[in-house]
């Protein structure tokens, strides 16, 4: 079969470019914060069916169905407003290539504090060849690229030579349970590409992520102690302990993929709540955060170590030792993963990149967590992240470089052509 991207497809991507930008703007206007993806998912499902003729299936992830899966992360929320969208195009009876999934996530993180943005985060704006807005990079630009890569192939008169799926999953930012539920239901393939915005470099490794909650209480119930202790002040003991733990984690021997990084894993305190009145002494506090872990590192061992680290710090404090902090875990229980980047899957992606970009393919090592782990760790499906260039993910004034979005669209089309093969639509 011809594994080179036919010129008509590249031309179609150019012709569809303004439409792709309009589509990206439209889906970026949906405030699809994790747990509130349904409106965007409805829009995408309708588009994939009506505009691309794909067979669309939708389902709500059921935590009970996947609770025993080793990749499951325990949520403290439901999925009533978070359905998964699966759009399918069966290949010909006699496939000429490999089956493929393009998978993106619909959810984004909160844009708060809104007052610090240069413009409304839900009204994407253009500046200097970039598009700004919450979720434009992470990862609605990638979702647009994977959809329009397929649309350009259709408009050029071709279709995939093997089974093909476009998937839009949910809750990637808190657990990844949307992608896990799709795999658990049998929506699998011979390979999967996820367009995370890491600058047109295929990921070969990523860290894991574990979410924790530490509850503190300095209201000592002892009639012989007539003193109120400020829990905010005492919390510095725990924060310092977490900082020391982070230092220790990064001083330990690193897996090969991370050896060039001085600080690949972190302990981040994301929320802190204490007190309710300026003239009161707060006695209860809750902090929540995330600890990174390396591929192959046991989640249960990290839990045990973190508990011991916090307990030791509390035991050495005259007040926290009386009522030790309680540490619990929720949300992300994600393992790290190293991908085998010498497989035919990666070779095909490298070829597609070099054909379109006319530069050697590069690799990235991620200090963040993505849904690619599920495919590689539990289903023996080669998968990686490859997407456009952007910045300020999870921060103020998130942006994506628009030229890189077009490049990724063409790489995705080229990859689909090589991996699945292409056949004329009439066949």
UniProtKB/TrEMBL annotation:
Please indicate which superkingdom the organism of origin belongs to.
Answer: Bacteria
State the Gene Ontology terms under molecular function: hydrolase activity
InterPro entries membership: ArgE/DapE, Peptidase_M20, Peptidase_M20_dimer, Peptidase_M20A
Keyword check for Zinc, yes or no.
yes
Cofactor field: Zn(2+); Co(2+)
* Matches recorded under NCBIfam families: DapE-ArgE (TIGR01910), PRK06837.1 (NF005306)
Q: What region holds the Peptidase M20 dimerisation domain?
A: 227-317
Entry annotated with the keyword Zinc: yes
**Similarity section:** Belongs to the peptidase M20A family.
**Protein name per the record:** M20/M25/M40 family metallo-hydrolase
